Here is the input.
Amino acid sequence: MGDRGASNHSEMTDFILIGFRVRPEIHILLFVLFLLVYSTVLLGNVGMMVIIMTDSRLNTPMYFFLGNLSFIDLFYSSVIAPKAMINFWSMSKSISFAGCVAQLFLFALFIVTEGFLLAAMAYDRFIAICNPLLYSIQMSTRLCTQLVAGSYFCGCISSVLQTSMTFTLSFCASRAVDHFYCDTRPLQRLSCSDLFIHRMISFSLSSVIILPTIIVIVVSYMYIMSTVLKIRSTEGRKKAFSTCSSHLGVVSVLYGAVFFMYLTPDRFPELSKVASLCYSLVTPMLNPLIYSLRNKDVKEAIKKLLEKKSTIL
Here is the structure.
C-alpha cells in the first residue's frame, strides 16, 4: 500500500525538463536563437494571416488553407517556445503535471492537424491543375470548411488518445524528462509500466495518421506530374510547378523532421531534440517564408499592403 501511494503521488508531482545537455554559457546562445526564431515565427505567421484576410484577391481555397496553416504553425510553436526560453534561465526547469499534460495535448493536436491540412492542400492543388474548369465547383466553401474542420477533428481525437495513453503510465522513476518539452517518447522512458502494448497502440495510431495523409499527397502529386508533363508550353509547365513547389517544400521539411525524430534510436536523445526543434520551431518559421518568396500573389499582396501603409504615413 505504501509503495502504491508513493507511486500515485509521484505521478501528480512536477516534471523537470532537462533540455539540451550543454554548458551553462551555451544556454544564453540557445535563448537568443530561440528568441530570434520564435519572433520570426510570430511575425511571419501573423503577417501571413493579416495579408490573407485583408487582400480580396487571396479569397480562394488555396489561401484559406494557407491561413489555417499559419494559424496552426503559430500556436503549436507557442506551446513549445515560451516555456523552453523560460527554462534556459530557470534553475528548477520544472513544469507542473497539468502543464505537461496540456503541452503534450496541444502540441499533438496541432501537429496532427497540420498533417491532415497538408493533405487537404495537396488535394486542392490536384483539383486546380488536373480539373481547372471544375475547380470553383468542386472546391466549394463548404468543402473547404469541412476539410479544415475534419483536420482539427482528427487532430483532436489523436491528441486525446495519445495524451491519455501517455499519462495513464506509472511514472515511478526519475521525473527528469530528457527533452525541452513534454513529448511521448521521453515520458515513456520515465515509466516502469510494461510499454509493449502502449508502443504497439502508438505505432498503430501513428500509422493511421501518417499513411493516409502521405498516400493522399503522393497520389495527388502523381496525377499533377502526369498532367503537367502533358502541357506543351514551357511557360505553362513553369506556372503549374510554381503553384506546387511551395507546398512540396513545406511537406518535405515537416515530414523529413518528423521521420528523422521518430527513427532516431533512444540512445541518441540529442539528435531527437534537434529534429524536434526542426519541426516545432524551424518549420513554422520557414513556412511563411517559403510561401511568400515562391508565390507571386502573396508578394503582390505584401507590396500592396506596404504601399498602403506608406501612403497613410
Remarks:
- DSSP finds eleven helices and three strands in the chain.
- The beta strands are 15-17, 94-95, 176-177.
- Confidence is low (pLDDT under 50) at residues 1-11.
